[in-house]
Structures are given as C-alpha cells and as structure tokens.
Amino acid sequence: MQNLLTDIDGVKVGHADDARLASGVTAVLFDSPVVAALDVRGGGPGTREDALLDLASTVESIDGFALAGGSAFGLDAGAGIQAWLAEQGRGLKVGGAVIPIVPGAIVFDLINGGDKAWGRFPPYRDLGYAAAAAASDTFALGSVGAGFGATTATFKAGLGSASAVTPGGIKVGALAVVNAAGAVTVGDGPWFWAAPFERDGEFGGRGWPEAFTPEMLTMRLKGAAGATAVENTTLVVVVTDAVLNKPQAKRLAMMAQTGMARAIYPVHAPLDGDLVFAAATGKTPIDPLAGLTELGMIAANTVSRAIARGVYEATALPFPGALPAWKDRFAR
Known about the structure:
By secondary structure, the protein is an alpha+beta fold. It has a single domain (5-318), classed as L-amino peptidase D-ALA esterase/amidase (4-Layer Sandwich), CATH 3.60.70. It contains five helices and eleven strands, in the order ββββαβββαβββαβαα. It has helices at 77-87, 124-133, 246-261, 290-312, 326-330, and strands at residues 11-18, 23-40, 47-48, 61-68, 92-94, 97-99, 104-106, 159-165, 171-179, 233-242, 275-284. Strands 1, 2, 3, 4, 7, 8, 9, 10 and 11 form a nine-stranded mixed sheet that branches. Strands 5-6 form a two-stranded antiparallel ribbon. β5 and β6 form a beta hairpin. It is globular and about 60 Å long.
C-alpha cells in the first residue's frame, strides 16, 4: 500500500501541468470499465458527462475521469483523455466504433497569477492527452496536475490522495483536488481539521490544538466578500475494489462526501462546486447493508485524509501575492 488511489488494482493516475500557465490536468484511468456514480453538494459545479452517471441513464460503466483546472475551459481535458484511450482501443463498443466514456470536472484557477493568454484554443485537451499517457501506478501529490494552481482560504493547496482497507478486506482509495472556498487548517495554525483521521503522520502529525477558541472557529473564505461560486471547488474520486451496482456506487459517493465536512471549514457552500465521483472495480463481494455502510464510513475518513494531504504537500506559486504553502510556515 502506497497510501494512494492506485492501491486499488487496475487504477492508474497521470498528471500534466504547465508552470507558466499555473494549471494542469489529472487523468484517472481504469484497466477495465468500472461502475461509477456522482454526488454533487457544492453550489457551482462544472462537469462533463455527468448525466450518464445518473441512475436512470443507460451506460453502466466508464473508462476514466478527467480532472482539470481552467474552469469551463478545462472541460476540454476529457477530450484529450478520450483520444488517448481511443488510440488504445479502450471504450464502449458500438458497432464498429469505440467511444471512451470519461466523465470529468473542473476547478477555477484562472486568476492565480499564471499566464492564461493561450490564444484561440485552451491547452487542456493536449494536457489531458499527456496526463493519460503518463498514467501509472505511482503519482505525485501537492501542486501537480489538476491541483497545480489550487488554493484555499489560508494556504496554497493542491492534489492529495490516501487509501485504506476495511476490516473485511475491502480496499478504498481517494484522490482530492482541493480548491476550497474555506480552510483546511484550524484557524491560521498548523492543525488540520482532518487530524483525528490521520495515519502515520501523513500530514504533519500535529493533531488538534489543546482548545478551540472563537477566533479559530471564525469563517475564513477565499476572496472574502468577493468570493464567487466559480472560483472554488473540491473534486474527489473514490475508488473501491468492492462489487457494487450503480445505486450502491451512488450511496458510496454520498457517504464519502461527508469526508469533506471533516476536512474543510466551511464546506458545501454556495461558493463551492464540491463533488465526489465513486467507482467500483468489482473484485471483492460486499454485504449490501452493513458492509456498504462500513465502506462508506472508511471512505469518508479517507477523503478527509486526502484533502489534508493536498494542502500539506503543496508548494507555493512563484507569483507576487501568492498564498504560502503549509510547509513554508510550519515544516521546521
């Protein structure tokens, strides 16, 4: 176990980013099609192919997920990932055609200091292709891929991941792109809201403060009164090796979403586009009641850890006025 989403067999992750652009793309790919669902709680999501994940929709499985910066421009990343998968002959077979199914979502990073004057066409399709081509069993965390330009109210953020195994032997992993309106740390201090769920000092081992003061509980919002829904979002992909149908995958996404509430303060605001994709590779049978409940509980804990790691592992952008990284201030 690497404490990554790719601890689930058959899952690969790749990044592509551009330092001048201060943005990027992350591709989550599956060796074989997987059952998937989506749960959206934020007020301003930006998504691609989300309708086919609805329980009433005909398509039962997908080939990957596209996560990108660039706001609505970043939705082009899915086309690049599709192109790479099509070249490998992977996708839904319809007659003689092969159509890779790649839902996706975006975060807003257009005003983080990077050069977004890309001309007629944004670069996200090409970045998506490069991310797919780079996908492997190991991947970097922090200011990489779709999390390259991500921020929170208090610190530079990025991409985090974590994994766990249930007592029954079911694996679950989470990947989070953290671009939240709120804060992932308690106040301005070194403590993470997700501290009770931390494992092996994976985000600094600071625990919680000895006491919570009113000042710590004050709302901190990125952009303060000027914050808008299009500027903030946390994207999560949860994958398990359990055997789930589409409604069960939806329930897993819903339960896993509570991990955001354990890691971000405040969360699920009108200012956010928070969502969770859930996918199941179908390797290990699971009890549909107690087993799924336990899986959802542990998935939520894993999501909170992934979010905290996305801030802990981030590095500051090299632009005037850029937010500091957590490690710049507290990793002494």
